[in-house]
What does this fold into?
Amino acid sequence: MADLSSPALRGRRSVLFGLAALAAGVVVDAVVPIHAQGARMSLGARTAGPGVGSTGTRNAVPDGASDAAPDNAPVAAPDNAPAVEPAPAAAPAPPVARAAPTEAELVAEFSGRRPTDWGLAVAGVITSTPAPQLALTFDACGGPGGAGCDHRLLETLRRLGIPATLFVNQRWVEANPGVARELAADPLFELANHGSRHCPLSVTGRRAYGIPGTSGVGQAYHEIMDNQAVLQGLTGRPARFFRPGTAFYDDVAVAITRRAGLLPVNFSINADAGATLPAPAVAAALAKASAGDIVIAHFNKPGSGTAAGFEQALPRMLARGAAFAQLGRVLPAGAVAL
It folds into this structure.
């Protein structure tokens, strides 16, 4: 597997992500005890995120501030004054949901743009988080040989109470409608978008592992949005995260993903190499994971070494104090725009 260290974000992208993380308050309640290691963030280099793993206190009084009342503070009411109910504070306005762009709008915006980068960790792709938890993510790819469900793996996660984000392809959902509904209703799991036909996301048709990528902006749009509609039908809300088939993107496709309203996500730890590794190798890969890592594995290939490897590794990880969270708990809403 190639070096997965992410390219550093530049300038305004880093500032926007940092501000979004602060606004969203990316401090989460873990399902299991919180890991004590420092927080990390990657849209490039891993740095401590604001309010997460930092030494400052989010609600501390600023330097120079005083608890004393100012000179023009209101005078207290006399003891015999009638009690007056304070006016209720106005509820904050809910965020305005921005409608996803249409295919025609994306074609008009991105046609003619030529990619300059290609891979697993293109700028703008999230490969780790600023949180003290690990994020376990599992792909279900669908298609010939990929439409199974590793119930043993899912039951291990349930038995240990470990949350996970499940990236499901439209083909897998169509082959497993009952299981898909069950997973959508289980609060331990969060469904994310793994594409419609399991293609690398490209605007030039570039291949990964011999699989042709989407060719053109329109095909990239449908690879994302066709499955997005399927997942919204399952969960009642739009999926927030996208990972393409093979996990390869070009940089124009990354921008299209974000413009469509999803965060492009990959990983910092590859636990099962497409469900091809034996159990001891899976467990060894997991042993390297620490706070902020995003782990990728697969739950669509029962009989592989994945379930047994997680059965071996997860109790050891919990014993050493590791904590786990869904991506939706550790990545801020609103950090989509490049």
